[in-house]
Amino acid sequence: MHSQPDFIHLKKIATQLRRDIVRMVHACQSGHPGGSLGCADFFAALYFHVLRHNPKFNMDGIGEDLFFLSNGHISPVWYATLARAGYFDVKELATFRQINSRLQGHPATHEHLPGIHVASGSLGQGLSVATGAAQTKKLNHDHQLVYVLMGDGEQQEGQVWEAAMYAAHNKVDNIIATIDYNGQQIDGPVDKVLSLMNLKAKWEAFGWCVTEFNGNHMEEVVAGLDKAKSLTGQGKPVINLMKTEMGFGVDYMMGSHKWHGVAPNDEELKKALAQLEETLGDY
Amino acid sequence: MAKYTFTEKKDTRSGFGAGLHELGKQNNQVVALCADLTGSLKMDAFKKDFPDRFYQTGIAEANMMGLAAGMTIGGKIPFTGTFANFSTGRVYDQIRQSIAYSGKNVKICASHAGVTLGEDGATHQILEDLGMMKMLPGMTVIVPCDYNQTKAATIALGKHIGPAYLRFGRPSWPVFTAPDRPFTIGKADKMIEGSDVSVFACGHLVWNAIEAEEKLAAQGISVEVINLHTIKPLDVEAVLESVQKTKCVVTCEEHQLNGGLGDSIAQTLARFYPAPIEMVGVNDTFGESGTPAQLMKKYGLGPDNIIEAVKKVLKRKKA
């Protein structure tokens, strides 16, 4: 997993994740395709190249890297990734958001779905939880890393900045946060709803080491995450501002907040799938 | 002769501090977090002796709850410390999602609860916390009665698995239970046996109930005093056993009548054994500045209020 990345394979995985996402959201006619599609490259790179992890899930995750999804509404891409990485049968993706499923609308530990360490969905909490987990790793002399993904709209939550201040003050340098910087949120462009102003300068002022990369270009994602990894252990927490396009991979969903939380109909599904090659076999 | 006496008064928060320090010695998985109230929460001893397991979070309680949830991943047992108001209402959604719904082994330790916080006034005197916490699925809720019991409850939480809320207070209060008195989470503690009326109390009001019992006994009224330190899970068996004998009930707590101990008991009786019930507590109002004694009196939480409630419920029982 830590050898040279096979970019062709990682791209194939990302394409299949995108197929899985639109099919899952279509099947239950609810969920959040936009952000999920935009982050498919990141998830493929993370789980199939970067993370040291074991699909035989263990809540304590000692000796493994940990990943937290703070913007829990992009659960489709995470569920698809976990299934494709062997945490559970890909057939279970068909149960997404349906009664008696382990695949809740927003991720939860309550139904014991392998791969999930904490519930998320109510925004702004994941960075705190990830920071706590990173501090436990330090107490345990466990040298693996903690990763967390947040949304850019989520940066409007005050708790994010409480955690930012805390992690820098306490030199939590075994954490790599990433912001899905797609510029969109439910009510419209982030700049119109509540501007983040200079987000890079903000995180730098909070004492974090900030990197930037294009989240919809596999080579750049891998290089960006590798770089972030090389910056850990130096007394500062690390954060990636990852530029993505909401809806990436499905032309009519791209670049608009409209597809943040809307499911495609039958016709739209067909149109989407025609643009996404079935690389690993549909569930 | 008095059934319970005391030779000293101590604050229950100091019982928490002593218990936490003891736990620090017993179990190196125990960690403590505090949001800029280390002295008020009496966490100094833990901080001094286990500095690598003590986390100062600054005035950022939401982050503290998230940190605590995350620290459980990898086996730590976090105890968070701040005032009860900032331990509950301020961070309800963080507790709900990251701790309770996620089933994390976090112990939320809350001081300065209720009107006996005193002079700081209503902004800090939370009277709704038990309701909020007991409504969360899977949350254990404990309100010990004095220094010794708070210490015992803290130590017991070290072995308990799952999210829990431990509520204690600021004022000096009689220490009337023995240091070695058994404490079991979820098990009612019968303080005084009686036959005419069951008085269920928690926290500081257990002592008030004991004082009320002494005066009532002198008037020939036999009062059973039960310390229901665990609001959830409620010891339903102990409640019903007592009420089946006495046939009437008074509940006592430093909390709103809505959502507190009395509310839990009324619900239990309505379902399993309807009986007349009177409730001593705060009735849909905020507190104010004053001394703990003045506030107890003004808001109807003193021994005299318990005596009055007992007489009222006894009349209803006969009617």
List the helices and strands and how they pair.
The complex is a heterodimer of chains A (283) and B (319).
Chain A: H1 7-28, H2 33-38, H3 40-50, E1 66-69, H4 75-84, H5 126-139, E2 146-151, H6 158-169, E3 175-181, E4 184-185, E5 188-189, H7 190-194, H8 199-205, E6 209-214, H9 218-230, E7 238-243, H10 266-274
Parallel strand pairs in A: 1-2, 2-3, 3-7, 6-7
Antiparallel strand pairs in A: 4-5
Chain B: E1 9-11, H1 12-26, E2 30-34, H2 44-49, E3 54-56, H3 61-71, E4 77-83, H4 84-87, H5 92-100, E5 107-111, H6 129-134, E6 140-142, H7 147-159, E7 164-167, E8 172-174, E9 189-192, E10 197-201, H8 205-218, E11 223-227, E12 230-232, H9 236-246, E13 249-256, H10 261-272, E14 277-282, H11 292-298, H12 303-318
Question: Could you explain the architecture of this structure?
Answer:
The complex is a heterodimer of chains A (283) and B (319). Chain A has 283 residues and is of the alpha/beta class. Chain A contains ten helices and seven strands. In chain A, the strands form two sheets. In chain A, strands 1-2-3-7-6 form a five-stranded parallel sheet, with helices on both faces. Chain A has a two-stranded antiparallel sheet with strand order 4-5. Chain A is globular and about 50 Å long. By secondary structure, chain B is of the alpha/beta class. Helices cover 39% and strands 20% of the residues of chain B. In chain B, the strands form three sheets. In chain B, strands 3-2-4-5-7-6-12 form a seven-stranded mixed sheet, sandwiched between helices. Chain B has a five-stranded mixed sheet with strand order 9-11-10-13-14, with helices on both faces. In chain B, strand 13 (249-256), helix 10 and strand 14 form a beta-alpha-beta unit. The longest helix of chain B has 16 residues, at 303-318. The relative contact order of chain B is 0.13. The A-B interface holds A 59-62, 66, 68, 108-110, 117-122, 124-137, 139-140, 142, 158-159, 162-163, 165-166, 169-170 and B 31, 52-53, 55, 57-58, 60, 62-76, 78, 93-94, 96-98, 101-104.
